[in-house]
């Protein structure tokens, strides 16, 4: 039996990117019950990809009750619906076998990974204050995406002079803005830029000198994306809600490395249940951005553990 439930979790504070703000995480939880065993998964429908709770629920409810993970890859496209079901099936299989998921997937036992902590888009003064408050963290990710971002960059670096900083424009710049901002990135010791241009208009990145690595996010979904990223990006951001689950995420990671891309593993603003599978994909990644539970005011009963800037693998009581 496959069940879908809409749930909302309050954020600790408003989370703002170039496309808008949110004050809660609106997720869909999936449970799969077979043979007295229950598996759990979660997804976050994302309007950027024309997903709603209703459309994703309809996709999930269209599936046969006895669908397998292999059949699922063909039954649904990459996206939130397939992610929640795929991860629930992994969880069910692990519980049915009495083993941890990494053992079943032939992976090494996961270890804690240093994760970025995200500062949402705000005024320069507020972003400097937020950076100073979180300057103890080893890596900060800042949300940008406006023509006036230099002041924000300067403010965050002043607030956290020693932190590793990555930035995410969320498709918010045009080419002129990107080239202007890029001139300041080395001076401000910015480690990476994520999705500077709209995914549909990133051809301009071909042949442009890159002063810091550029990472594809909205431009990269699953393995089919890779052919369109060559020559534009140095790194890809793998998110389970884009790949359509752990199965495709692991395959995408392997293909990306074989094609010479570095790997970032990120997430939507979901709960610990949604982030738990990504901790497996994050093993050995150059950049890990799995901080969503830290942004919540409320989380699952058995949350992921965070300590000293690191995210720990999930307990079996949570997932896997």
Gist?
With 320 residues, the protein is an alpha/beta fold. It has helices spanning 53-61, 69-75, 80-97, 101-104, 124-133, 149-159, 175-185, 240-243, 246-258, 272-275, 278-281; strands spanning 2-17, 20-34, 37-43, 113-114, 117-119, 139-143, 164-168, 190-194, 214-216, 235-238, 262-265, 287-288, 306-307, 310-311.
SSE arrangement:
Blueprint: E1 2-17, E2 20-34, E3 37-43, H1 53-61, H2 69-75, H3 80-97, H4 101-104, E4 113-114, E5 117-119, H5 124-133, E6 139-143, H6 149-159, E7 164-168, H7 175-185, E8 190-194, E9 214-216, E10 235-238, H8 240-243, H9 246-258, E11 262-265, H10 272-275, H11 278-281, E12 287-288, E13 306-307, E14 310-311
Parallel strand pairs: 5-6, 6-7, 7-8, 8-9, 9-10, 10-11, 11-12
Antiparallel strand pairs: 1-2, 2-3, 4-14, 13-14
Helix pairs in contact: 1-3, 5-6
Keyphrases for this structure?
globular, 30% helix, single chain, alpha/beta, 320 residues, three-stranded antiparallel β-sheet
Query: Looking at the chains present, what oligomeric state does this protein adopt?
Result: single chain
Strand content: 15-25%
Helicity, in percent? 25-40%
Following the backbone from N to C, one meets helices and strands in this order, namely EEEHHHHEEHEHEHEEEHHEHHEEE
């Amino acid at each position: 039996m496959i069940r879908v439930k809409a749930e909302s979790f309050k954020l600790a504070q408003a989370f703002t990117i170039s496309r808008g703000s949110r004050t809660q995480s609106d997720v869909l939880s999936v449970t799969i019950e077979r043979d007295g065993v229950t598996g759990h998964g979660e997804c976050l429908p994302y309007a950027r990809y024309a997903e709603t709770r209703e459309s994703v629920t309809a996709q999930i409810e269209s599936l046969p009750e006895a669908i397998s993970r292999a059949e699922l890859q063909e039954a649904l496209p990459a996206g939130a619906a397939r992610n929640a079901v795929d991860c629930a099936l992994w969880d069910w299989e692990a519980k049915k076998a009495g083993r941890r998921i990494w053992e079943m997937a032939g992976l090494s036992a996961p270890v804690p990974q240093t994760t970025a902590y995200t500062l949402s888009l705000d005024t320069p003064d507020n972003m400097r204050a937020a950076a100073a408050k979180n300057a103890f963290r080893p890596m900060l990710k800042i949300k940008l995406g406006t023509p006036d971002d230099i002041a924000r960059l300067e403010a965050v670096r002043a607030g956290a002079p020693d932190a590793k900083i990555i930035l995410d424009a969320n498709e918010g710049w045009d080419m002129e803005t990107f080239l202007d901002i890029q001139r300041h990135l080395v001076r401000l010791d910015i480690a990476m830029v994520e999705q500077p241009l709209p995914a549909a208009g990133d051809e301009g990145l071909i042949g442009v000198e890159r002063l810091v690595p550029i990472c594809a996010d909205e431009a990269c979904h699953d393995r089919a994306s890779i052919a369109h990223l060559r020559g534009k990006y140095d790194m890809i951001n793998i998110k389970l809600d884009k790949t359509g689950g752990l199965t495709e995420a692991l395959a995408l990671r392997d293909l990306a490395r074989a094609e010479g891309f570095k790997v970032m593993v990120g997430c939507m603003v979901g709960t610990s249940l949604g982030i738990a599978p990504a901790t497996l994909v994050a093993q050995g990644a150059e950049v890990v951005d799995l901080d969503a539970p830290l942004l919540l005011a409320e989380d699952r009963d058995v949350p992921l553990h965070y300590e000293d800037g690191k995210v720990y693998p999930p307990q079996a009581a949570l997932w896997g």
